[in-house]
Specification:
- The complex is a heterodimer of chains A (about 110) and B (about 425).
- Chain A has about 110 residues and is α+β, with helices and mostly antiparallel strands.
- Chain A has one domain: Alpha-Beta Plaits, CATH 3.30.70.
- Chain A contains two helices and six strands; from the N terminus they run E-H-E-E-E-E-H-E.
- Chain A has a four-stranded antiparallel β-sheet with strand order 2-5-1-6, with helices on one face. In chain A, strands 3-4 form a two-stranded antiparallel ribbon.
- The model of chain A has no long low-confidence stretch (mean pLDDT about 90).
- Chain B is mainly α and about 425 residues long.
- In chain B, helix 1 packs antiparallel against helix 7 and helix 7 runs antiparallel to helix 8.
- The chains are: A alpha+beta (about 110), B mainly alpha (about 425).
- Chains A and B meet through strand 3 and strand 4 of A and helix 9 of B.
Chain lengths: ~110, ~425
């Protein structure tokens, strides 16, 4: 089992979600995040005083997935979330030791 | 002489105006509250709210007597003693002449000015003033600064027959200030400058971004201020008449001019017209037209407003040059706008629109009127600035004016009021009822 973590542009969330649902994924967790990568910060102006905002809002998507579906899911997220411009985000996977479904107590791939 | 009888029309307008001016102080609370960070919005708004509480009580006890009493026959204060408003039922207002409105309505209307003036000062010391010390400051400042200065500017004396007693110093000198450019805005602006110096800079000033936490609240506040300001300016006519109509029209168009002026500066300088700029321009225009609203023609009001927007948009950066943390620009907006508006009467004033008005430079009146206006500006600025420095340092040395840096960093709302403004994510707080 793997945990896919994708940091994407907030505007791409709906497209990614719909593509993953169409691909048959069973669940996802979404949270708001902020950070920086290669994309530069933005400048905001308040009464003439300029502030650099270097932590930019992003969306973090987390998906638990069986090993065999991991690569295809990552590929799908990358394809859908891409705009080609800087700041599109990153996707990575980490191995997961154990998953338990709280309601039934099922564990392992059945719990995903 | 004909007996003056109560005018229901004038009285109705003054009752409504009084309510309009009261609304400005909660409006100011929103205007200021939106500009601070989430951890201090409640304290910012409460500084305005407690001013309503304190000044209303002072007014009934002695405030009205200091500002508008006749017992001293002094140009500097009305009288030392109780306001005695309980005996004023059915008495008509006498302020340089007998007005057909109840004295109690006049007293209530003037009370609203006494409330908003100290509330304006609070923007200069956002995020860092002990709440109790602020309450003490409002009490002392109202007593020794606002109430006397209101007498200088707004007290036209007690007229009995041809004898007029207890005329305020500036009113007697012929300084024109229809609704409080000097007594309210220069007064509050100078005091804000003094308090920003007494309390010092906020922790992290010019290092952290201190972005406004809610610009919609700021815009709500500026909208409420604009609405209430019609009572402030047009109500200062003390009658439902043509002068009130002139003041109302000028208030509208000057504010529109300032809104455009401020945005134009931003568009040229920074590339964007901002919502904070629009809100700030609105207030700058309202401030500048306040003294002038019944003495200039509407075209001049647009010009006064437009330049107020431009001047104040540039002036708010002065604090970075001089290094004082006037957090929400009481100086840049109220002091600068108040000075500009007061002096502008010396340029654009015309007796053509108001029989008690005088001609300024552009109407062939020479510089005499401008000189009078400069006297009003200079005297109120100097007195307010010096008196506020003394009051501020006295409070700082005795009970302390500023919260500790730990409290300031953690948030003044939690420490001074035991509240937080927003429960944005319920799960992140936890806790149970004790």
């Amino acid at each position: 089992m793997k945990l896919i973590t994708a940091i994407i542009k907030p505007t791409k969330l709906d497209e990614v979600k719909e593509a993953l649902q169409a691909a048959g994924i069973s669940g996802m967790t979404v949270s708001e995040a902020s950070g920086f990568g290669r994309q530069r910060g933005r400048t905001e102006v308040y009464r003439g005083a300029e502030f650099t905002v270097d932590l930019i809002p992003k969306v973090r998507v987390e998906i638990l997935i069986d090993d065999k579906d991991s690569q295809s899911t990552v590929d799908l997220i990358v394809k859908v979330a891409s705009t080609g411009s800087i700041g599109d985000g990153k996707v990575w996977t980490t191995p997961v030791d154990q998953v338990v479904r709280v309601r039934t107590g099922e564990s392992g791939p059945e719990a995903i | 002489m004909d007996q003056v009888v109560l005018s229901s029309g004038d009285t109705a307008w003054m009752l409504a105006s009084t309510a309009l001016v009261l609304l400005m102080t909660p409006g100011l609370a929103f205007f200021y509250g939106g500009m601070v960070r989430t951890k201090s919005v409640l304290n910012m708004m409460m500084m305005s709210m407690i001013t309503i509480g304190i000044v209303s009580i002072l007014w009934v006890i002695y405030g009205f007597e200091i500002a508008f009493g006749y017992s001293s026959d002094s140009p500097w204060y009305g009288g030392i003693g109780r306001s005695g408003l309980g005996g004023a039922v059915n008495e008509l207002t006498n302020n340089g002449g007998i007005y057909p409105i109840p004295l109690l309505v006049f007293a209530a209307f003037q009370l609203m000015f006494a409330i908003i003036t100290p509330a304006l000062i609070s923007g200069a010391i956002a995020d860092r003033a002990k709440f109790t010390s602020w309450a003490v400051f409002v009490t002392i400042w109202s007593t020794v600064v606002y109430f006397p200065v209101a007498h200088w500017v707004f007290a036209f004396g007690n007229k009995v027959g041809d004898t007029v007693t207890s005329v305020g110093y500036l009113a007697g000198k012929g300084v024109q200030d229809f609704a409080g450019g000097t007594a309210v805005h220069i007064n509050a602006g100078a005091a804000g400058l003094a308090l920003a110096i007494v309390l010092g800079k906020r922790v992290g000033w010019r290092k952290e971004s201190m972005r406004p936490h809610s610009l919609p609240l700021v815009m709500l506040g500026s909208g409420l201020l604009w609405f209430g300001w019609f009572g402030f300016n047009a109500g200062s006519s003390l009658a439902a008449n043509g002068i009130a109509g002139l003041a109302l029209m000028n208030t509208q168009v000057a504010t529109a001019g300032a809104l455009m002026g401020w945005l134009l500066v931003e568009r040229i300088r920074n590339g964007h017209a901002t919502s904070l700029g629009a809100s700030s321009g609105i207030v700058a225009g309202l401030v500048a037209i306040t003294p002038a609203c019944a003495f200039v023609a509407p075209w001049a009001a647009v010009v006064i407003g437009f330049f107020a927007g431009v001047l104040c948009a540039l002036a708010v950066s002065l604090k970075y040059t001089f290094g004082f943390d006037d957090s929400l620009d009481v100086v840049g907006v109220h002091l600068v706008g108040g000075i500009w508006g007061s002096l502008a009467i010396g340029l654009f004033g015309t007796s053509a629109v108001n029989s008690i008005g005088l001609d300024g430079i552009f109407y062939g009146g020479g510089i005499a009127l401008l000189g009078k206006q400069a006297l009003g500006v200079g005297l109120v600025f100097a007195y307010s600035f010096v008196a506020t420095l003394i009051i501020g340092y006295a409070i700082e040395k005795t009970i302390g004016f500023r919260v500790s840096s730990e409290v300031e960093t953690e948030g003044i709302d939690l420490n001074e009021h035991a509240e937080s403004a927003y429960e944005l994510a319920g799960s992140s707080h936890g806790g149970k009822l004790l």
